[in-house]
Amino acid sequence: MSTLALAVRDSSTMLRRNLLHARRYPSLTLNLLLTPIMLLLLFVYVFGDTMSAGIGGGGGPDRSAYIAYLVPGLLLMTIGSTTIGTAVSVSNDMTEGIIARFRTMAIHRPSVLIGHVVGSVLQSVISVVLVGAVAVAIGFRSTDATGLEWLAAFGLLVLFALALTWIAVGMGLISPNAEAASNNAMPLIFLPLISSAFVPIDSMPGWFQPIAEYQPFTPAIETLRGLLLGTEIGHNGWLALAWCLGLAVLGYFWSTAKFNSDPK
User: Which of 53, 96, 117, 153 has the fewest Cβ atoms nearer than 10 Å?
Assistant: First the structure.
């Protein structure tokens, strides 16, 4: 069997293993999925009128407009939330001894990480679809987006999921236990809260605006918002792409270096 065929076979096996774990133990995935859904319902039905009036410059509440503004940010937050489960899963593998067993077997070594990454990206896409379905059910509409813009939006979500997943894998590898992995990955949920997901950056205090602007979630949110709602994207598209590629490359080399290092 060629090296490529061996890599594909072993990676497929590891992917099936991770998907089976997710199916047998769905509580972690469901708990992480509930966070963006609860935030969506909270901000729409509790804060929706007030937030929409403020964003509209005092022109009166428009909950449907705020739903449209809110959903792109929560879709990306869903990805960040889902990847926390990846960090926990990787940490469990490292601490429960299964990785030590894999090291003694004649398998393609990177396939262990590839299985985690591909499985996490698939779970992220499914989670985004579920959150998107809830958003549509409560009134979100994207009538102006073309087929090409929908395809670009989907590609951005997948690329963002891939980038955050590699970072989450690295966080799981350096964590001594599952609890530490969950804590280490908390910025993946916290960063969207201080981005443009809920309110425009120019409505924030001046000293806080650079914190919200110069981080990976804000350009990705603005790009997704532009693709789905027809708002101005500007330089955010290139920034989002740069953040995704940079984080993916950083996470890949960090994770593989840590995984291939000799256990202490």
Answer: 96
Q: How is residue 94 written in tokens? A: 């490292």
Looking from the CA of 53 toward its CB, the CA atoms found within 13 Å total 7
Q: What distance, in Å, lies between the first and last C-alpha atoms of the chain? A: 33
CB 254 within 8 A of CB 165: no
Q: What is the full DSSP assignment across the chain?
A: --HHHHHHHHHHHHHHHHHHHHHH-THHHHHHHHHHHHHHHHHHHTSHHHHHHHHTTSS---HHHHHHHHHHHHHHHHHHHHHHHHHHHHHHHHHSSHHHHHHTSSS-TTHHHHHHHHHHHHHHHHHHHHHHHHHHHTT----S--HHHHHHHHHHHHHHHHHHHHHHHHHHHH-SSHHHHHHHTTHHHHHHHTTTSSS-GGGS-TTTHHHHHSSSHHHHHHHHHHHHH----TTHHHHHHHHHHHHHHHHHHHHHHHHHSPP-
Q: What is the pTM of this model?
A: 0.89
Residue type, 190: F
b (16+ CB within 10 A) / e for 221-241: bbbbbbbbbebebeebbebbb
Q: Phi-psi bin for 61: left (phi > 0), alpha (psi -120 to 50), beta?
A: beta
